[in-house]
Amino acid sequence: MHMCMVVLHVPFYVEIRGNYTSNGFLRVSCNGGLNQMRAAICDMVTVARFLNLTLVVPELDKTSFWADPSNFEDIFDVKHFIYSLRDEVRIVKRVPKKFSSKHGYATLEMPPVSWSNEIYYLEQILPLFGKHKVLHFNKTDTRLANNGLPLYLQKLRCRVNYQALKFTPQIENLGHKLIQMLHEKGPFVALHLRYEMDMLAFSGCTYGCTDKEAEELKQLRYAFPWWREKEIISDERRSQGLCPLTPEEAALVLRALGFGRETQIYIAAGEIYGGERRLAQLRALFPRIVKKETLLTWDDLQQFQNHSSQMAALDFMVSAASNAFVPTYDGNMAKLVEGHRRYSGFKKTILLDRKKVVELVDMHQNGTLSWIEFADAVRRVHEKRIAQPTRRRVILDKPKEEDYFYANPHECLCEETNCDDLLGPRNSSQVSS
Question: Where in this chain does the entry annotate a coiled-coil region (predicted)?
Fold first, then answer.
């Protein structure tokens, strides 16, 4: 079968499999925001390929906080997705009618166990297809292990992420327009300012908020039953480094890291909680702040209104293309953009140590540290927190705490035989227990 050639930044090989007999149909419902769903799609393609299943085009979450009604084909180029993976896995748009309940077939619904390796899917999931021709995974986030998978499966996860998952032409065209507008005005920093209502409510972080705002965020947290943690002490969470930086904290850190008033800063985020009032200090230090809403016209953005995942796709494209990327929280977008930037030649990504940052900010603001001492300390803390070539950190039996595959897919960044040339031999067995 003829294959289209794709030019990649690094050597990249996958096992070509040709035709296979399908063991059944796998339906998947992704949960979460755009980037959580993106990682899940990569994982589910990999599971379908490993078990010789026919994958149904994934269903996207419409019940998350922002209630985005977008379907897969509204965000991703579905034809490209199916075609580019045709030598790996068979993908269809819907389950054939003959496998419906009318014909006596019952779809089995279940969430796979989180962080599972290929043995789980082979021994626990594949046998289910003997009785059920259609299996529906109704949760797909983090259902595949970070580490220990066969190399060809890890590389397939990357092939899906970096080749098969292209945004729709409408999103791609507008994203490239944004990037061009920014580059024409010089280098720019993409600041992923995760100071948005959903994140603050979910994490219980209310530092800098009024009492009324703190109560509003608490009520929102209680309104979502699947946000399990309800009673949260904000100050404790912040001191542990578990809160997104506030706009004010982000402003001080960027200044300390050496970014000047002339720096063009693109805010990659939804609506900042507190609006312009909360951006005042950041804007005072960095007057050249821009957002997609200020760069593009209403006509440009009209088709994306009320579609948070499509808007997030624009921010993703800009963040991946920026001269420097600074996330203020290590959520799914931050991790996937970090991985894309590693894959694109290790573009500058500054991974903030939030626990140390808030400690230094508080010392500076209470007069314990002068500005010079504060800036020097911030720089020293982050000297080695630039995303450099390294192998993922493995923590046995604690997959949530180890490095995330999509933030650092090191298997896809070099050939296994000479990985040490890039990643360094000292990192070859970075396992913690």
Answer: none
